[in-house]
Amino acid sequence: MAERLEQRLPVGAMDTRASGWWAMIFTVFTEASLFVYLLFSYYYLAVQPHAPGTFPEGGPPPLGIAAINTAILLISSVAVGWAQLGIERNNRWRLVAGLGTGALLGMIFLVIQWFEWGDRPFGLSSTPYSSLYFVITGFHMAHVAVGVLMLLALTWWSKLGYFNNRRFAHIHIGALYWHFVDAVWIAVFFTFYITPLLGLKA
Amino acid sequence: MTSTDYERRPSVAPETPGLAERLNRLWETAPGLYGWLATVDHKEIGIRYIITAFAFLILGGIEALIFRLQLSWSNLHLLTPEQYDQLFTVHGMTMIFLYAGPVLSGFSNYLWPLLLGARDMALPRLNALSYWIYLCAGIVLYSGFAIGFGPNVGWFNYVPLAARAYNDGPNIDIYALGMILLGISTTVGSINFVVTFLRMRCPGMSINRVPILAWGTLTASAANIFAIPAVSLAFLLLWMDRNVGTHFFDVAAGGSALLWQHLFWMFGHPWVYAIVLPAMGMVSDGLPVFCRRPLVGYSVVALATVATMVLGFGVWVHHMFATGLPGVSLSFFSAASIIIALPSAVGVFAWLATIWTGRPIFTTPFLFFASFILLFTIGGVSGYMTGSVPVDWQLTDTYFVVAHLHYVLIGINVFPVVGATYFWFPKFTGRMMDERLGRWNFWTMFVGFNLGFFPMHISGLLGMPRRIYTYGDNMGWDWINLITTVGSFLFGLGVLLFVWNVAKSLRAGVVAGDNPWDAPTLEWATSSPPPPYNFAVIPTVASRHPLWEDRLARVGTEKSVIGRGLVLEQGREALGTTPLDAQPNVILKMPGDTLVPLCLALAMSVLTIGLALVNWFVVAAGVVLIAAAILAWLWPSASLGETAEVDRDG
Amino acid sequence: MPHARLAILGFAPTTFLSIGATAAYAAPLQFLTGAGDKATPVVWLTWGVLLVSVVVIVIIAGLLAAAVWRRPTLPWTLGQKAVLLPDEGGLNWLWLGVGLSALVLLISVVWTVKVLADIQAPGSRPSITIEVTGRQWWWQVHYISPDGRGFNTANEIHIPAGEIVRLKLVGGDVIHSFWVPQLAGKMDAIPGLTNETWIEASHPGIYQGQCTEYCGVEHSKMLFRVIAQTPADFHAWQAHQLAEPAQRAITATKGEQAFVDHCGNCHSVRGTAAQGSLGPDLSHLMTRQTIASGVLPNDAHTLAAWIADPQGVKPGNSMPVVNLSADERSDITAYLLALN
Question: What span, in angstroms and rounded, lies between the C-alpha atoms of B251 and B643?
């Protein structure tokens, strides 16, 4: 660099060169670790001795609604990805529509999950299993709620015309978080809904 | 809108007084109270971290001296058992969480951009946030103690003793919530370090040219990112057990007491390395300056740093050898805990070889760094002994372990940190610390420390359990404890001399100049103290020792260039480079003074207080304030180059 | 001058060590010696790794001192550019040092695993099983005799010398840690778990123990002792403990009523209406050497003092100051003194 710089350099928060994008990568790592420890707590307590029928309490939870909810969350990820590709092609309508759809599906997920909570035959304080169930799914719901707020803010900013095909770092950063939140659900879903069917019970 | 609005080819030019003046206007923190609260300058934040951490060190030290008096002979009654329990717990909490980690964050915050040839950390506002949360968490953690309800079950806070059934006051709730808050500070700080390492190194500083301090802090930060959630979660689950009726640790309802220990030590052991590796990095960088040669085995030492951390994630169970785990698991974790000594041996022999093949210069920082090697060895071998399960079954929870952890924490953290203060003080302030007083300071601390803590090995071998507030006169521990108490007061006197030297040198120290020690790295290439923008033009480096290149025989390599380089002056700008080779990659728009980080930290404190009071109204208020602060923070800004609109004013 | 410094570096730790060694064998909780099948291999290993550690410290201190003082040191002048030494040599130190360390560490691992395997399970069948429960802040000791009858005692664990004794450790409230350094290393007593371990005392004697997991305000005063007796003595003791406390004199009978009224909710004495289980079982109290979990010798004087003001002796412990008249107190004391 002592003589002259050969290439032109992008200026500002550019795509994956934005510091915020890197910060989100490591935020995702630390959040993922949080869920690893949560699920570790589940499996650790699962292999301790329990009173019969309390782990999982009331038998394996029914798959139906949870499976639909999983699909909803996955579709929301697709919508957000569609928005990301849209803004890279400078298509702001796609951006707003994709992000808005993602946020809406996220909210539907939360509502369904809320009813799912109400359907459980136990409360937070019944057993270690019930505590794990509400706290882990609750942690995930809190993440979905944060993600929905992010998507709503991004939708709003997109409508205000803040982004174009060069300036979309915010979109990628928010989307990264949203995809992570969806991916984590798969692990939570597998743990609570699938492993009891595979025979993991105390 | 054309693509030229988003791209530029900055010129390459020598630095000029005019450029320096323009940059100064751009980068200077606003004057007055506003500037004090709103600054995002890494140097200002670094100094605050260091001062706050030293304040906690002194508090923790006073606590220790008080209970050392209680222990100095058998059957004394200076303290009630409850007072003793709060004192030893708060002492541990203070030293381990509020001093040892943050002081290293402070040094790294101040030094990193200078070492790396950068204008600031990658995320300056996150840096300010990290400090403010640390301060708030420190206040929260001390608030209980101040009103008589300090944590009282030891810093690792085992359940069920920490559960509601055995601990009904607010003591543990405040501790738990304060620790979660502190964890957020450490996490965002760590993310900032990792991103800075990957993105902010000046051109030419490929990863094999980075100072070891940067390797140490990088490794520690990466570990924190993965480890902190374990302890934050543990404390949150405990808070819920205590306040909302969950049963994670509630044995009577089918929970597990050992789940706490696993979660705590999955964090705890990596944390131990996180609070020593950066300090070892300080020695790796500082010691060679006083041996007048580069560090022996740079690559091996850097690799050993990373290897220590990786292994460090696999040894948490050695804190739980006596909990009745199966033999296979014991053998595995025992072997891992013994083998982890190997990367440490790399460091010890590299430092020894550096002194041996160099020509030592007796300065105060050299004394601290060189003596560190011996203290590190003593702390290391006692760790090796506790790694052996059958021996650990005797040693654990005795004063032998107390001796071990103090040799580790004081020997590998406090000694390098005090040495580093002598070393970098001229850079921080423009003045040298007093060398003569420095000798007194060193020898008092060194003799006091060994007199105070070496005998603890022996009281441990004589069976004295840790955390007892008194002992019978028939146990054979009186004299050894008296010696320990005398030594600890001598050590305290040494720390006092250090504080005195800092105060004295701030006013009357010899003016240092840019590079008083003739050190080789970039922080010494700028003025002392550095200007707000650190470097007027972005330097380019061609080796690990840019300032020694003229005198180190190197064949056929290009030279580092310091006074001439990329000019970035259209607003607050910094250079982003590629993660491995550090090739110019992007011109980053850096944020200026802002109150948002402070507001966010305060909002998080509101949430913490709400949870401590179990007042859902305050909790909701905290959540709303946090959301508002984050929205304001992330609102796309033209001047930061985040929106399609271009900010033409710079 | 350099040599004087070197001498200080070398001798300070050595001096400490020798003082320690002299005092060592007098301290009841020291573990540099041992007294049984389980302790012996651990004592050897402890000395082994201790020796390695001391040798390493001495070598490193010596190398450090030699490296620092082997040549006259250079002067330092503020800001002056110095002559540098080339960036070469020294790597052999690394390979040699790390190689030797690896060898020593490897041997240590093998030795560790070997000792661990040796002491994990006893060499022969245990002759007796004792359940020890850690409580805040005392130890409940439960024996089952061969005919299935059991009895409780506290803070003193009688065992037959030369025989394998299996221990079941239970955490009664919070986590405690069972440790008799002369016989064996620590094992935690954890609520919700039953940890099994074993001890063996090669010859009769009194082996002190203490709780080593911090367990609350009186953690410091949670001592106990293992009393190893010849098998004949042990069986006599066991038979005596199984029997109900003997018939008592008139004054003692008066004390019994007061005891039942004021103490019986927490303490029990077999054969009476006092059947509390919060505090130690006091049947045969006077066969114990200490009270208050190893803190006080068990005699008329300390017993009376303890009843009058337990919070003065162990502040924070679970035994309240019971409001007793002077007569009641002396009656109860007399009653307890008759429990042997």
Answer: 55
